[in-house]
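EI: anyone free to look at a 250-residue chain?
SC: sure, send it
EI:
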Amino acid sequence: MNVIIYGAAGGIGTAVAEEFARRGATVHLAGRTAGTLEALAARIREAGGKAEPAVVDAYDEAAVEAHAESVGRIDVSLNLVPRGDMQGVPLVDMAAADFTRAVTNGLTTNFITARAAARRMTVQGAGLILALDSGSAHGSPMMGSTGPADAALDTFVRNLAMEVGPSGVRVMGIWVAGLLETLTLEKLQAVNAAIDANALSGIHAGLDAARMLRRSPTLAEIAGTIAFLASPAAGGITGTWLNATGMFAS
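SC: here you go
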């Protein structure tokens, strides 16, 4: 199995890549920073897995197509590329550019990578295109541009699934929100500069309390769920989003 992960060197990408490698897949690690990709590939190889790092700008159509062509058969394509979300600011106080950036970026990169995969998977007659967002399209105040960006991606996934389904290709998404292992102070301050260490502790506690299980999902659980979605056991699932947030979504 060949798996391409765009944005592979981040927290979720690393966990997913290691999970697929443990299951025998060749993971193609795509991203912008050679050093982090090569370090992850080395760790996977040391554990007995197969990994191929590649510097690929997932916003560059030609680069994505060239990389996909070099991979050959693509069984799973997963996009985890950052969108530049802006949060923590009331919508009435946001600049238009901050509001639209995540919508434009998220649709652009997911469209480019999904199209590259779909072009090859429809010829193969099989494959899974997988997207990830937070499920915030259903109403999340103070989440700024995240809700509209998620809504756009949710719709794109469903529409693409309907078009490529007759060729045997599945398209779906997974909602993931607030993984505590990835919510570091540095990352949160990138989207909301007002957050400090005390606020971070409060965010973690609040997220745990908001879950139906009163605990947040782990990276290992999310990686295992994504691997399941790519398995034959999930072969009848397409055109939908799996809620892995531990929260209600209407």
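EI: Strands lie at 2-6, 26-31, 50-55, 76-79, 127-133, 169-175, 241-243.
SC: 👍
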